[in-house]
Amino acid sequence: MIRTLSAYIFFVKLGIKLFIYFKWTRAKLSQQEESERTSQIWSLVGQRCYTKFLKLGGIYIKLGQFLANAAHLFPDEFISPLTGLQDQVPPKEYPVISKRFRSEMNMEPEEIFDTFEKIPIASASTAQVHRAVYKSKQVAVKILYPGIESSVRKDMKIIFHVLKLIHKFIFPFPYADIHRQMDQLFLQEMDMNLERANLKKMAWFLKDEPKIFVPRVIGNFESRGILVTEFIEGKKFSQVQPVTSKREGLSIHIELLIRAYMLMVFRFRFFHADPHPGNMIVTEQNHLYFLDFGAVGWVNENEEKSLIRIFKAAMDHDSKGILDGLESMGVLTESIDKEEILRLIEYSLDRVKNIVGTIENFRNINISELDIESDIQFIKSMRTGLKDLVRALQPPDNYIALQRTVDLLIGNVALIDPYHSVFDYAEKPFRSLILKERFFPWIWSLF
């Protein structure tokens, strides 16, 4: 109760401050003062949310991680502090974890496993992972925190009201849809039976891939709160050898990662939706393992066809093709100004082409290299406001999962190979693997 009240008070106080600024204070500032002050406000809000979410734990860390990937909704100044929640989650003490294990298995961990390490090797917002030995095999044991499910349900009710207040008093956005997608994403991550099934499904899909794997599920631990898989020896994806100059060529690890996602999205239509570096392991044999299948996404047949159309058009610099793909995907509503959307796509394609062609290092891009002033002038020249255009879009149900996945993939490319863009890695496998399979299916039948 105290935790819930603390969270509610925090959000209300923050909402009042934002409401006063955006409704009254901002109108009294000059254009330059307004830009600087708004940037400061969002940065301060981001820092306060980071501190509070870390203290509250549980779903609020998930919320922070979710918001950190919502670049389409919130400014960078707000998002930047929240990215620290991706890998700074403090672990629970062993007695807490042991309590959950007993409630699931009616036994202590030491009674089931040959050995069980009490200090976790990884901790997250809803669970943590311990190393153990089971029937002489090295295993990873993922255990949900006690009471996390009921805690999340209570917290999601508060989050709904907070999102609604932001929508009503600060700036409008599809809060109900965002909340629904967040709720689905968070709840599926708290069901180990579902994650167990996801692992088995992806293992079957990847059975013919020689270098891309998921850990094998171990034992018959049918439990919503416990998951046991084989332990994978290796290093985190962030620890692989980075590319140190453009002359080195492409990273074999990034090539493998991009191939994996081409297969997941366009062939399997089922993908790992949280590819941050801690969820991927590279072995000594340069095999890539995907961990943590709590967050997954699906792509239906129409979305797959539309995405292929959009990707191909983007690579061919075909703005009309992108518009057609968005329309076939159901993203464009009847009320939207398609001419302005087409103009925005054309401008964006030109800007991306220019940025990719001129920037030498994609890891630490200087804002002065982006020519923000040109973007501002273009937005001002639009007859329909950018916010109005965005509001008129109808994103698909899996948009949040897809968007988060794409953002994380771009970040992984910049981390390991700052000298090449994601386009350098994606175009060849997309054309050779996906387009040939789509338009020349008899080739695929030979393999």
Structure description:
With 447 residues, the protein is of the alpha+beta class. The chain has a domain at 2-90 and 147-188. The chain contains 18 helices and eleven strands. The strands form three sheets. Strands 1, 2, 3, 4 and 6 form a five-stranded antiparallel sheet that branches. The protein has a four-stranded mixed sheet with strand order 5-10-9-7, covered by helices on one side. It has a two-stranded antiparallel sheet with strand order 8-11. Helix 11 packs across helix 17. It starts with a helix and ends with a helix. Residues 442-447 have low confidence and may be disordered.
Relevant terms:
447 residues; alpha+beta; five-stranded antiparallel beta sheet; four-stranded mixed beta sheet; disordered C terminus
Helix content: 55-70%
Order of helices and strands: HHHHHHEEEEHHHEEEHEEEEHHHHHHHH
Low-confidence stretches: 442-447
DSSP strand tally: 11
Round the mean pLDDT to the nearest integer and report it: 85
Shape type:
globular
> Structural class, please?
alpha+beta
Main sheet summary:
5 strands, antiparallel
Describe, in short, the structure shown.
The protein is α+β, with helices and mostly antiparallel strands and 447 residues long. It has helices at 2-23, 31-56, 59-68, 76-82, 94-105, 109-112, 148-169, 175-188, 192-205, 252-268, 301-315, 319-329, 338-358, 372-381, 386-391, 399-416, 422-439, 441-444, and strands at 115-116, 122-123, 127-134, 137-144, 212-213, 226-230, 235-236, 270-272, 280-282, 288-290, 296-298. The protein has a domain at 2-90 and 147-188.
